[in-house]
Design goal:
By secondary structure, the chain is an alpha/beta fold. The protein is built from 5 helices and 9 strands; from the N terminus they run αβαβαββββββααβ.
C-alpha cells in the first residue's frame, strides 16, 4: 500500500467521526512535506492546504496567528482567513486566503505538529529525510547563495525546535521523505 493511500485511509477514518479533518504534515525543511501534501491533494478530493511558511512575519514564524486565524476558526465551524507571507517580496502578500471549515485541511510545514495545536489535529504525519538530502534539496530550490543560511540558521533552529517540542513523538505515522511518495 502506498504512503499516500495509508494517510488517506487515516483521513477517511477520522472523517467518519466528523466532517472537518485537520491533518498536520510536519518535518524538517526540504524533507518533502509540501510534495507529500500535494500528492495527498491529488488522492483526496477537496483537500485544502495551509502552509506554515505563510505565517512568517519577516522575523519569525507567528504560530499564534496560525492557531487563532486558522485552527481556532475552523474548529469553531467558521471559515478561516489569513494573509500569507510572500517570500519573494519579503513582505505580506497583500492577498487573503480563505479556508472552508469542512472536508480535509492539511497544515504543512516545519512546525505543523507544534504543541500549540497538535491536539486539534486528527491525523499527524512526520516526514523525515537525512540532513544531506534536505540541504541538497533546499539549495536546489533556493539557490547556492542560500546554503549558508540553511546551514547556519534554518537547520540549527529546526533542530532546536524538534529537540524542545518533540513533534515526532506525537506523529501517527512517520514517513521516509528520502523516497518518492507513491
Amino acid at each position: 500500500m502506498s504512503v499516500v493511500r495509508t494517510i488517506a485511509d487515516l483521513i477517511e477514518t477520522a472523517g467518519a467521526v466528523h466532517g472537518l479533518v485537520l491533518v498536520g504534515i510536519g518535518g524538517h525543511g526540504a524533507a518533502g512535506k509540501s510534495t507529500l501534501a500535494a500528492r495527498l491533494a491529488d488522492e483526496v478530493p477537496g483537500v485544502q492546504i495551509v502552509a506554515t511558511d505563510g505565517f512568517f512575519d519577516g522575523d519569525q514564524f507567528d504560530l499564534r496567528r496560525l492557531r487563532t486565524d486558522v485552527v481556532d476558526e475552523l474548529l469553531a465551524g467558521r471559515s478561516a482567513m489569513y494573509e500569507p507571507w510572500d517570500w519573494a517580496r519579503g513582505a505580506p502578500s497583500g492577498t487573503t486566503v480563505a479556508v472552508r471549515p469542512d472536508g480535509v485541511v492539511v497544515i504543512e510545514g516545519v512546525c505543523a505538529l507544534h504543541e500549540m495545536f497538535r491536539h486539534a489535529l486528527d491525523v499527524r504525519v512526520w516526514v523525515d529525510a537525512p540532513t544531506d538530502v534536505r540541504l541538497d534539496r533546499a539549495v536546489a530550490r533556493d539557490g547556492e547563495s542560500s546554503r549558508s543560511t540553511w546551514m547556519e540558521l534554518w537547520m540549527p533552529n529546526e533542530e532546536a525546535y524538534v529537540a524542545s517540542d518533540r513533534p515526532v513523538e506525537c506523529a501517527d505515522i512517520v514517513i521516509d521523505g528520502n523516497h518518492p511518495f507513491v
